[in-house]
Amino acid sequence: MHTSSERPTTNAHLLGWVEEMAKLCKPDRVYWCDGSEAEKKRLTEEAVAAKVLIPLDQKKWPGCYYHHSNPNDVARVEHLTFICTPTKEDAGPTNNWMEPKEAYRKLGALYDGAMKGRTMYVVPYVMGPATSPFSKVGIEITDSVYVALNMGIMARMGKVALDRLGQSNEFNRGLHSVADCNPERRFICHFPQDNTIWSIGSGYGGNALLGKKCLALRIASYLAKNEGWLAEHMLILEAESPTGEKQYVAAAFPSACGKTNFAMMIPPAVFKGWKIRTVGDDISWMRVGEDGRLWAVNPENGYFGVAPGTNRKTNPNAMDSVRKDTLFTNVARTADGDIWWEGWDTEAPPELTDWKGQHWKKGSPDKAAHPNSRFTAPAKNNPAISPSVDDPKGVPISAIIFGGRRSTTVPLVLEAFNWTHGVYLGATMGSETTAAATGQVGVVRRDPMAMLPFCGYDAGSYFQHWLDMQTRIPHPPKVYMVNWFRKSAEGKFLWPGYGDNMRVLKWMLDRAAGRVGAQETLLGNTPKAGDLDLTGLDAPKENVAAATKIDLGEWEQELESQAEWFDKLGKTLPKPIALQREMLLERVRSA
Ligand code: GTP
Ligand code: SPV
Ligand code: MN
Fold first, then answer.
1. Which of 10, 79, 292, 529 has the fewest CB atoms within 10 Å distance of its CB?
2. What is the pTM (predicted TM-score) of this model?
3. Where is the active site (predicted)?
């Protein structure tokens, strides 16, 4: 074990900062992670001894462990997440804001001595392929061995990051402590101007794995705005046609709205010869390439995926990805070291240990697995991983897809008329809330580009940045809006979703390549009759008709309700976006 006298770097900026943070948090030990297999084994053993991790049946689940988080700490906490910019206007009306000095003072007092009796892990990591010019180095200081082990799966962690950093001062400074895990003293603060993140009081997911939402989205979106690129809450997938042609798409669906599933999709049998592979399942960093196209890199190295609903039928690639070296958090367990969650392949066994560690009996009204229970799996386990995941230049994007979770109104697929219309579709995207964040589930809220909780600056300026990108991208991707979640009057999903989403993807790919026509509607282009391949679809025709229907009455209401959203955004809302709504409303009213 490295002690503070055995530091694996001579970087004075880094050493100085770590020392300063140690002085504040007062840990018993400082340990520098090197990212080696031997270290992983050792830290896992320590975590097992401390009952932070519980081994699963190692024959069936090699290298897999179970973790219960504190029952008060099971999801992102948007009301406790702050953007600490010099002015409140910089953070904008959709973010919580704290004055930077005030935030450092307030959290500083909570960090004071917070690591007494504990080990302070120094976790160096790279977001993005180790050699890509687009990648970013972060250092996360944490007092949670669980967080350190998760970071080892989610990012390229350890020596690789210190080697890349060298003597540079350009690294994200992330300080994390679970402290007493009290929601009253929980804060996730971002200081974009200082490239700094301070997180305290939570050990869960996006609150605590600082490379993910905090750095790769909130801080990166701020950098992207200043530097002319995009940091987005998007999956990236590769589609290879039967003739070997490859196309790449990036898709923004809000939290727990289908990114992991879409990125790992297996096409139905009728799409013989088509292969879908995963580049990323949550985050996309996109820049304009020398050829004038948009090129995307996945900054992550693993999947922090929603467990419930994942099974052999809905997502076989995810089930294969979790077969080894995976951490499961807040799922249910069987007595013999196995796991289970709602939407597993088989019914619940008669008895389980639920996500809180309590005895659970089949038929209980309570969920055995928490709805936001997750797996942390290495990307390399995915049998359908794209060979381009580590490509330092990324992959060229031919379509951008926005998609919310909407029981009504929004049809299965729409193609934007042009870039500005596409930005408008993204900016007004609505989605029903999910268990990925604390708070009420199932209420429609605006979640522009699926970035509402993740944009590190003012939303209106973010839309302006999207509009400005048009002039930088000579060959822009086409833009789409999809909705897999429309429901019947009885509350059942109309569209079967999952692998069948290939039918919609195929149309978008064909459009992007100019292989198929479209039907123009008031709201956007849609597939012409017969162009959506429904061969072998296991769903009644009338359901498909209802899923693709455009009801102008519903749209009039939708467009009216967008006015409230625009009012909230205030004066930085770009005029062209406001105009799109007004023109559309006029056309819908006079239709
Ligand atoms: P985050 O990791 O929170 O950003 O979520 P995500 O967008 O990756 O969502 P994910 O793919 O994990 O899906 C969330 C939930 O939606 C799971 O319970 C899935 O089973 C379910 N889901 C995904 N795709 C579909 C679909 O096409 N139709 C339906 N009905 N459900 C889906
Ligand atoms: C999300 O909520 O969008 C996630 C999970 O991907 S978390 O990392 O917890 O933010
Ligand atoms: Mn996400």
1. 529
2. 0.98
3. 257
Q: Are residues 90 and 206 in the same domain?
A: yes
- Residue 29 Cα to ligand 1 middle (Å): 40
Q: What is the rounded CA–CA span in Å between residue 521 and residue 548?
A: 12
Nearest residue by C-alpha to atom 8 in ligand 2: 206
Tell whether 69 is covered by a domain: no
Q: Is the dihedral of CA 309, 558, 544, 281 positive or negative?
A: negative
Cα–Cα distances (Å) from 63 to 54, 222, 324, 524, in that order, read 11, 37, 5, 48
- CB of 258 closer than 6 A to ligand 1? yes
Q: Which residue among 227, 261, 281 closes a domain?
A: 227
**Which residue, of 227, 254, 274, is where some domain finishes?**
227
Q: Is any ligand 2 atom within 6 A of the Cβ of residue 206?
A: yes
Residue 415 and residue 273 share a domain: yes
Same-domain check for residues 333 and 314:
yes
Tokens of 102: 């005030």
Active site residues: 257
pLDDT digits (tens, 9 = 90+) for 111-170: 999 999 999 999 999 999 999 999 999 999 999 999 999 999 999 999 999 999 999 999
Report the CATH number that the domain containing residue 270 is assigned in CATH. Answer: 3.90.228.20
Q: Which domain holds residue 350?
A: 303-381
Under DSSP, the state recorded for 452 is: T
Q: How far is CA 310 from CA 242, 318, 344, 350, in A?
A: 28, 7, 6, 20
Q: Is residue 20 in some structural domain?
A: yes
What is the number of the ligand closest to the CA of 260? 1
Residues 125 and 201 in one domain: yes
Q: Which residues participate in the annotated binding site?
A: 76, 204-206, 213, 233, 255-261, 282, 372-374, 405, 498-501
ipTM: 0.99
Distance 310 CA to ligand 1 centre (A): 8
Sequence ranges of the binding site for Mn(2+): 213, 233, 282
Q: Are residues 251 and 325 in the same domain?
A: no
476 lines ligand 2 (CB under 6 A): no
Q: Output the six-digit token pair for 281.
A: 């399942």
Question: Does residue 282 lie within any of the structural domains?
Answer: yes
